[in-house]
Structures are given as structure tokens and as C-alpha cells.
Amino acid sequence: MGMPQLWFASPRVLPKAEKLQGRVVVLDIAFAATVGTSISFEAITKPFLDGLGDRLAAWVDHHDHEKHAQFKYDSRFVLSTKAEHGACPEMVTAELVRQTGPIDCICTHVDLDGLYAAAKWILGGKEPYKGADDDARAVDTRVGTPGAIGTRIDRALRAKFRDDQLKRAVVQYLVGGLQKGPHEELIREAAEEFERRDAKTQELAGRFTLRGRVAVVDTAGAAGQFDKTDLLLAGQAKAPVSMVRDSGMLTIAAAFDSGWDFVELFKLGGGMPTRVTIPEASSARARGEAPPNGAVGSPLDDAIATINNAPAPTPRMVGKDHDHD
């Protein structure tokens, strides 16, 4: 089985189109959301699309974005919302792979969802193991519990999320039938690293303070690495919305089935509705707008006030019987 060129990317950090070989499939990469003046669909996603041109074979993604409507008549784009598909691999079907035809390169998201989607595409639309789609959905939505394989790979990737060698090992491990060997060993070692940093995550979890609907923690001064996803989940155990302030950025999250849409609330244009990361500088006051309800305070205060002043969200049903409603 020939392995296509693999390129790992994110909505805000896309490769130069000329670096991607031949016909290209893009998986689990959202159109860039609008944050400030330098990050937007027009500044990041459109130049990449223009650069690929007719070499784009398919773009498969499940993140909300206001620009999706512009591509509904282009059969190369298979786009949905997070509510319709909790994860991307379930969108990669044998029929889609067959219709798309031979490809030379896969450009996929850096997380488990993206890597599973890439492996499934290489396997012709077949799950790399029974339950892989369910594992990807559980990891990407944080609803339900992934199996042992998904849990180990998720922890490995979160421990070394910048390690492209590990990402390649994950795809090759999945495509190769979960065989023991160097790929499996690399994943196991990274998962063990995750366990070591969990102590710092738990320490930071004890710092959360409650401000209305929001549990907020500031990581300033924290020594050592921590896992942001688990830290956000710890905050969600204390309040409906969790917020982590880290290095000038605010990461905001709520349960997948909560009904919160932070993309709309913070006017980002696109992304995952229940988890966003925004620079503090993108607050209302920093944009020159009036703070929410006349709030007086820091950009952090503005963001918290925006959430606390928003209408109560309507929870939505989640589960295998409702994911595609």
C-alpha cells in the first residue's frame, strides 16, 4: 500500500501550497476564523485554496464556518458542522474515497481526529480498527469514553503535540494494523510522558476560581508542562464554562452538548463552537468597542462578562442516535 505524502497543519498555520505534491486531500482542517486583523479566511484559507487550485481533490471538515455556503456547489468540499458530525473520520467513507480517485498528498489536522481521518482515507474508507470512529468522536467531543487504543494515542499526542515524527508514527501504526514495533513504542513512550505531566495539571486545577458561569484559572507562574484539555475539563466540573488564561491567550470551553456557541458569542466567524482560543487583545475593549454591559476591568474581565451576560444556551441531544440530526 503506497503511503501518500503527509502534511500536518492547523487552520491558522497552513503550508505553502507548492510544497504539497500532486492531488491533495485536506482533512479536519477548519476554515480560519476571524481573530483580529491578521487571522481570517481571506488572509489564510483563501490563499491556500488559490495555491492548490485544481490540484485540490477533496476538503473534508466538520467545523462550523460562515463561508461553508460558498462551497456547497463544489463537490470537492464535504463540509458539515460540529453538531452534524462530532468527528471527521466518520465523514471519510469508502464511497467518498472511491469517487475522489487517486491522490498524492494528505494535509490533515494535527490532532487525533485528523490523524484517524488520514489513516482511514489511506485504508480506502475503512476504520483502522473496530470502533476507531467512535474513539475519534469521543476524543474530539469529550463526550463518552474512548477505548484503550484511542485513550493511549490521545494521551501520546497531547504530551507531544508538536512532534511530527509521533504524528507520522500514529498514522503508520493505524494503517499497519496496530502491529508492535517502533511506531507502537513511540506512542507508548509519549503516553507515559503524558502521565508524568498530569501532576502539574492537577495542581493547576486546584487554582480555579468561580466567577458566575465561568471557572477561570491563570497559569502565570506555573512551573512545568500541563495538559490544557484536562485542565479545561477540570474547570467544567466546577462551572458550565471553563477558561484558562495562558501566555496572553484565553482558551474557553464548555461541554459539547451544552449548547454554548463561543464562535458566535465572540464573533470569530468559524471554529469549534464549544472550544475557542482568543488572544486577550481581541476583547471588546481592545477592539475599541464598548465592554459588555458597561463592564469595567481587564480583557479577561470583558470575556467573563460576555459569557455571564449571554442568554442561557439550549442544550442539545448527543449520542450515536443524534450526532447527525
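(the above was protein one; protein two follows)
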Amino acid sequence: MKKLVGAIVAAMLIALLATTVYAETTSIGLELGEEMPDFTAPLTDGTTVTLSDLLKENDLVVVNIFTSWCQPCEKEFPAMEEVYEANKDRMTIVSLSREPQDTLEIIADYKESHGLTFPMGLTEDNLSFLTLSGVPVNIFINRDGKVAYVRVGAFLQIQDFEDKVNAMLDPNYDGKVFAEDRAVSLTPYLFGGIGIFSLLQVISLWILLRKAGKPGWHSLIPLLNSYQEFDIGWNGWFGILSDLLMLGGLISGALEANLIFRYGLRILSLAVAVPGCIKIAKSFGKGTVFGVLMAIPGLRVIMRLILGLSKAKYLGKG
């Protein structure tokens, strides 16, 4: 059992470490080496930008597709800004939001608040030739007006972005294309991590309940397992109340309820859980600190597992 639990923990850590903030892998409908279709897009300063005009003045144009709510997009902008500032005499970046709810005013505020100086605006319907299902997307267009590189997903390291820019600004650059980079999809890692974490939670609680002389299969039924777990050292209804308060906090967060209200529910949930967890810990001969740590949602599964696999004996209800 210890080997099994160890393998599950290792797999869970690998899945979490491998998870990136990249966007979904997607094809953008362009072939590497083909000429980028010309387009015109509105900018935040009230003007418009046309690709063919930019290519007359720059050896490289990077078209960045983003949205104002996209966190990976936000993470890559500082690196892009730094490289842009160092090379803006020979290259430019045009960052365009494809979010229908974004307006030029919203993007203007976004640009100012993030300290960005390269042109920003909206795609509107002017880039309808692209097939996009995720953001960010970066399209590198060389001096010949051809698609030289496509990055689907965020540049999280400045070096990654800088290397591609330097390669295409090199005096010896011959117009060659670079293989398309596609970011790792978040979805399989997310579901894999949730699955592994859920399995670990069932195993840890199963061991704990069995050690306390309670039916292990109760760990498969959420409210019942809360009742049984807290009944080890306290009135079991406290476990259900704690879970319901936490669930209320999560639901109110999803519904964008008042910040004080939703975090108040979560704090109240923790306050209800702490006394019960302390008594559970003491029922196995552990101290108050162990019980407090066991009440913290992020540590709860690990502390259960330690409690169940340790040599601590169940001493009865506290």
C-alpha cells in the first residue's frame, strides 16, 4: 500500500509540474513559408495599421493575438516589450485582441496599466482568414512578407522570444522558416491531476476510516465521508457543515458574489473544521499543530495519509 501511495504521489507531482499556462494547441490556418494576407486593424490611438505598410518599414513584424482576460498572454508581454524596445528600429509588434467584448478603450487602459509601448488594437473581422481556437498566438512575418514562424501559446522565457527575433534580424538571415511551436495542452494535465488527487484523497481517507474501525467505502460518498471522518473525534455533523460552507464559498465565487461574503464563508468553513481536525489528530495520539494542518484544504489529504500510514494507534473519541 505504501508503494502504491508513493507511486500515486509521484505521478501527481509530475502531472502538476508538467502543467503549463500555455493555450490550447491549434492550427491557425496558415502554412509556414506562405505570404501573410494583408490586413488593416484599428489601434488604441485612433489610427489603423496595415501589414503591407509595416513591412515597408520593418525587417520583422510580429502579430500577437490575445485577449484582455488571458493570463498566459499577460505573462508573455513583459518579455515581448523588452525585446521590442531593444529592436524597434528594425522590427515591430502589433498586438490585437480577438475578444468581442474588448473595446479600444479597454485595450488602451490595458496597454497603459501594463506599461506596453508597441501598437495594440482589435482584430475585429480583419483577420478572419485565421482559424484560432485559443490565445495567445504569435505570427512572425519576415521581410519578404512570409510567415516564418508561428507560436501557439505563451512565451514565458524572454530568451525564447529573443532568439527568434535575433535570428530573423540577423544580416545573414535567408528567409528560412522555423518549425511551428505548439504549446502543451493544459486539459489532459488538468484532468489527470484532478483524477490522481481524487484517487489519493479516497485512499488516504479509506485508510484513516479503516484504522478507526469505520467502513472504508464511506470515503467514496462525499457527505458521508465527511460525517464519518469528523465523527472519529467530534460530532460528525461538523464535517458536513464545514464542507457545505466551503462549497458555498466556491459557488459564490463562481457567481462573482461579494468578495467579503464568499471569503467569509471559506474562513467560517475553516473555523468549523479546525476543532474537529484537532480532535481527530488527538484520537490518533497526534498534537494540536497536526490537527490545525489537517484542517487546511491544501494539506488535508497529505495529513490524512500521514496519519493513516503512521504507527499511531486509534485512542477512541476525543
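Reviewer note on protein two: The chain has two domains: 2-15+187-309, 24-182.
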